Amino acid sequence: MLVYAINFYKYYMKRIILLVMAVTLMACGGSKTIRDSKKVMKGNWTLNSISYSEAGTYNVTLLNDVSKACFEGSTWQFVPNNNTGIYSIGKYACETGDRHFIFTIDEINKQTGLYDFLLKPTNEKHKSETKQGFRLRLASLSDTAMQWQQTVSVDGKPFTITMNFTKS
User: 32-167 is classed in which CATH architecture?
Assistant: First the structure.
């Protein structure tokens, strides 16, 4: 009888351990939708155009860095396996050079596929985060195009900045 009880215990303990391991792996891996999005984002992109939800002329400094005119035409590289990237400003009369960042995608709605995208500048040498981050909405993503939107407040009203990328 004791042998039967030990075998019974071993059988069910193995099953419980396997179940716990499977649940843990699923919880740590992130959703399939986010993993798929990171695969699509991987690589080089060009920020082609930036538009505003309201007509008019605005003096906007994006990501606390440079103007809209300097950002248009900038190149971006995303490395999803370690959530890092670089964007490069190369226009004449702009503060040129590479800027390093880390990014995360937080899922919002599985039905619409819309996300919040958090971009945080880093120190190139140490890869340490700055205390500042920018919450953007990943409005659309395909193999060849990506669109971000950032909503800020202007005179107490929502003002949306839309950034359109194409894959290089």
Answer: Beta Barrel (2.40)
Question: Which H or E element spans position 152?
Answer: strand 145-154
pLDDT single digits (tens) 40-50: 788 999 999 99
- Rounded distance between C-alpha atoms, residue 85 and residue 102, angstroms: 6
Rounded-to-integer distance, Cα 107 and Cα 31, Å: 8
Q: Is the dihedral of CA 95, 98, 104, 110 positive or negative?
A: positive
Domain boundaries, the chain: 1-30, 32-167
Q: Can you read off the two tokens belonging to residue 128? A: 């340490």
> Dihedral angle at the C-alpha atoms of 41, 46, 52, 56, nearest 10 degrees?
170
Report pLDDT digits (tens) over 129-148: 667 889 998 888 889 999 99
